[in-house]
Amino acid sequence: MKPIDLFVDEVYQNVGGNKKEIEELKAEMKSHLLEAVHELKSEGKSEKEAINIAIERFGGEKEMRSVVGQLFKIQKTFAKWMLYVALTFLLISFIGYGSFVYLENTQQREAYQFSEQIINSLGNTITEQNKTDIREIVESYENITGVTVSAVEVRDYGNDSEHVSRKHEEPDFSFREKPIFNFFLNYRSDGMINDNWEVMVESKSYALTGYLLLNLSVCVYWVLFTIWAIINAYHHRRLNAGWGIVFALLNVVGYLIYVLMGKRKVSI
């Protein structure tokens, strides 16, 4: 029926989206309208009356065009934001992990500097002034949590072979702040040894936090990108269980395969 065809064409005029999907939706709308027209005609209405009533029941051309346009706009916007959020989490994972790696390396350098400072200040014995200085270092730096100093003896076996061992089972001096339990925080020890002393500086470690942030952000990105890829495949009318598994397992590589397969079909 030409009036039905014209109405449907007007409704979907200037609607952006996948052409195949639009044609399928137009065919579905025509089918519903024709079914309504046949029912009205069976009730005694003329064809013209039946067509007008069926179209009015659908909401009219302007209203339907607005509804269809909004529907496609919402679909596009949702998919677009899904991709943006996924990429944001991926960016956060790399920036966050890089920041924690930088912080961890900075902590290590500081620990070596403090251990060098302490070991150079020691003579043959640990004086009370040495102990006071060590306590001040630990208390004045937020990330330094403790220091242990142990007397050592070095045995030279020749051929550049040396053996270093502690003179006493327990450290000669140890000072450590009371640790605060934190699931995301670990502690690390760095230090140095000379002919008389071993100095180990304990500091906060952010490696675990970095790994957790990286893994969590990548997982969120992976899930969101997979959902975005599935939505796109659905809009292209190419979604099936196989593509869903490919997207879930291979992520962006799987989507590139999907795109290349689609181009290959078009060229054939």
Commentary on this structure:
The chain is an alpha+beta fold and 268 residues long. The protein folds into three domains: 1-59, no CATH class; 100-210, Ribosomal protein S3 C-terminal domain (2-Layer Sandwich); 211-265. The chain has eight helices and five strands; from the N terminus they run αααααβββββααα. Strands 1, 2, 3, 4 and 5 form a five-stranded antiparallel β-sheet that branches. Helix 2 (19-42) packs across helix 3 and helix 4 runs antiparallel to helix 6. The longest helix is centred in the middle third of the chain and has 61 residues, at 61-121.
Instruction: Estimate the strand proportion.
Output: 15-25%
Supply the number of structural domains: 3
CATH topology of the largest domain: Ribosomal protein S3 C-terminal domain
Radius of gyration: 36 Å
Would you tell me the structural class of the helices and strands?
alpha+beta
N-C termini distance = 35 Å
Global outline: rod-shaped
Q: State the order of secondary-structure elements, H for helix, E for strand.
A: HHHHHEEEEEHHH
Question: Which stretches are low in confidence, meaning pLDDT under 50 for 5 or more residues running?
Answer: none
The major sheet is characterized as: 5 strands, antiparallel
Named at the architecture level, the CATH assignment of the largest domain is 2-Layer Sandwich
InterPro entries: Perm_prefix_1
Keywords: Membrane, Transmembrane, Transmembrane helix
